[in-house]
Amino acid sequence: MTEFFRQDLSGARFEEVDFSRAWFRNVYFVGTTLRGAWFDDVDIDGEIRNLRINGVDVGPLVEAELDRRHPERTKLRPTDADGFREAWTIIERAWSPTIERARALPPALLHERVNDEWSFIETLRHLLFATDAWLLRAFLGRPNPYTPLGLPHTEMEADPSVPNDPDARPSLDDVLALRAERMSIVRDTLAGLTDTVLAGDTDPIPAPGYPAAGTYPVSRCLRAVLNEEWLHRLFAERDLGVLEARGNPTNT
């Protein structure tokens, strides 16, 4: 098996190449052209914009189907302060049954990965990092907001100012305690949010740290938190089904 890790293959040409059973993660197909391609039993999960298959832009079709499956998803594209408050209520409500589902599993399974995706605990740790980065640092301006149990995204360059211990194995209760604290901060912040603040930019944030030094639209910071919460809960739900089968082999 040939493995490419952090390689720049932009501008490369592939012809008569067999990608059967290949695995791609954190890859970028921007301005990519495929001709004479054969897609059979292919699973793609990612951001889709201007993706044309046989001349059809499939992005809007995918978005419409996702909205049909999850009607509450339409509320997760807020444009005003009230909309952000409503969206966060949806997020908190959605996580409750997911957490109960996880609690029903043996604790060790919550540290297991499915198809090398993050474990359930790692997913929650990443959401701690996302809140620390985009709400506490970028929006609220806290200079050192990161909990040691936060887990940055895998492709992030090492930054001594950002804790990153991928081998940590905290308990579910330990992580949930931190989650409860962070989610309360989000709730309180959105309670005081106004449309005027939402339409503006953050104060400049200094280096070092993530996100990078500079100013950001407030809406971008808050949407980052919403999007991370929504998407990673869906990933967690997907993988919990596999973990439940591992924990109850007689049901497989």
Q: What is the number of beta strands?
A: 2
Regarding CATH, which class?
A: Mainly Alpha
> What characterizes the major β-sheet?
2 strands, antiparallel
Note the beta-strand portion: under 5%
Q: CATH homologous superfamily, by name?
A: dinb family like domain
Uncertain regions spanning at least 5 consecutive residues: none
Mean pLDDT: 94
- Biggest sheet strand order reads 1-2
Distance between termini?
30 Å
- Give the helices and strands as they follow along the chain: EEHHHHHH
Radius of gyration: 20 Å
Indicate the CATH architecture.
Up-down Bundle
Put simply, the count of helices is: 6
Helix content: 40-55%
Instruction: Return the CATH topology.
Output: Four Helix Bundle (Hemerythrin (Met), subunit A)
Structurally, the number of domains stands at 1
Gross geometry: globular
Q: In terms of structural class, how would the helical and strand content be classed?
A: mainly alpha
Explain the overall architecture:
The chain is mainly α and 252 residues long. It has one domain (73-251): dinb family like domain (Four Helix Bundle (Hemerythrin (Met), subunit A), Up-down Bundle), CATH 1.20.120. 43% of the residues lie in helices and 2% in strands. It has helices at 59-69, 81-103, 120-139, 172-191, 195-198, 218-247, and strands at 52-53, 56-57. A two-stranded antiparallel sheet has the order 1-2. It starts with 51 loop residues before the first strand and ends in a 5-residue tail after the last helix.
Briefly characterize the structure.
The protein is an all-alpha fold and 252 residues long. The chain has helices spanning 59-69, 81-103, 120-139, 172-191, 195-198, 218-247, and strands at residues 52-53, 56-57. A two-stranded antiparallel sheet has the order 1-2.
